[in-house]
Predict the structure.
Amino acid sequence: MDLGLKGKVAVVTGAASEHGIGQASAIALAAEGADLAVVDIDLDGVQALAEKIKKMGRKSTAVKVDQGIYEEVRNSVAQINEEFGKIDILVNNAALTSNLGAIRKMLPEKWANEININLSGPYYWTREVLSIMMQNGWGRIINISSVGGMVGGKGLPGYAASKGGLVALTKATAHEGASKGVTANVVSLGLVNTAVYRSGLLDPATVDGLKKKTLFGRMAEPNEAADVVAFIASERASFITGANILVDGGMIINA
């Protein structure tokens, strides 16, 4: 299926990890013909990804950004827009989890950090690209959230709160962009086989329990999320906006 992305320019944040959703999304968009600005605080990681994308025959640049700092985001958007001449697609994927534990034990500075990176960061990117997209009369903003943002996350209060806020931010963006051909949607993920799970942050018994909550009894692979991102970014999804699209293997309905 031709998704109509040839010649589009996409920005994907949090794209450095080889086993991450950001990198898989960038590759999926490049495979459909998009040029990419790949963004992360890990410059080496996105430089390696940019080289992969160039070998696919697409233009790509790597940009180092701490998205918790508004000025860095603003300057990076200006740089990308100047280099590519436009920005058509934004995938807000970058996020972190710095706290595993109860609300009453979560340090205020860890709360502030998660809200800053996971919610303020996507707001900064959206703020800067939305004017460009509306001026050009076309745009796709895709925010990567989590089922934790819908049902709450036990032991993940900052992460769940920030991801829930991201859903609301997306809906507000959908209202603002619609008159100029800009859509905004959320892809809410369940269990995905990314570096977080490969790192051993969670013990195997916990991971097995989470797998059993899906109807398929397994994790999703990053490309399964990335394919949804590519479709939502496409011409084929022109009448979808303000939506929260679940890619959770039925985890919510199996709770």
Q: What stands out?
A: The chain is about 45% helix and 15% strand.
